[in-house]
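User: Working on a comparison across species. This one is Putative high choriolytic enzyme 1-like isoform 2 from Scophthalmus maximus. Can you predict its structure so I can line it up against the others?
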Amino acid sequence: MILQTAVLTALLCSVQGFSIQAAFEKTEENSGNTLTDDDFSVSTLLEKANVNVGKNLDEPLVISGDIAVPTGLQNADPCTARGCLWPKATDGNVYVPYRISSAFSTRERNFIIQGLRSFAESTCIRFTPLQRGQRDFVDIQSLSGCGPHSIHTKSMGHNVGNSKRPFC
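Assistant: Here's the predicted structure for Putative high choriolytic enzyme 1-like isoform 2 from Scophthalmus maximus:
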């Protein structure tokens, strides 16, 4: 009986010793725990934050991590119809009216406006506050997920943009 216990103990000790040694031999390279720059890219972070967006029937379907698409029957390429794109003004700029939900605080609204204004620095897009009588506009609301999201077409009368509170 003592011999069996000694042999069993010797076997268990050698197995435990091997397991511990094998764990120490793992390098960071092959452990699967390394992080790359892609893990921190904006698109990757948005996709992770929006993984469950669009699963609620009251919210639009979200594709590619940050694009809200209306459900229902629509063309696979929604911008093939005339009038789909925002028109270019005679000065060469594209003016896009927007409305920000009152659910946002003044600080949050100013943050969103600052982001919209940043488009003017490198593009011909100029976001302008919605004026009475404008049918097509971007509607920025506080929904679930991490935004902004936008609907592809403007033929619905307005596009819904989303920016979750608190900001992600």
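For your comparison, note: Residues 15-21, 148-156, 162-168 have pLDDT under 50 and may be disordered.

User: Helpful, thanks.
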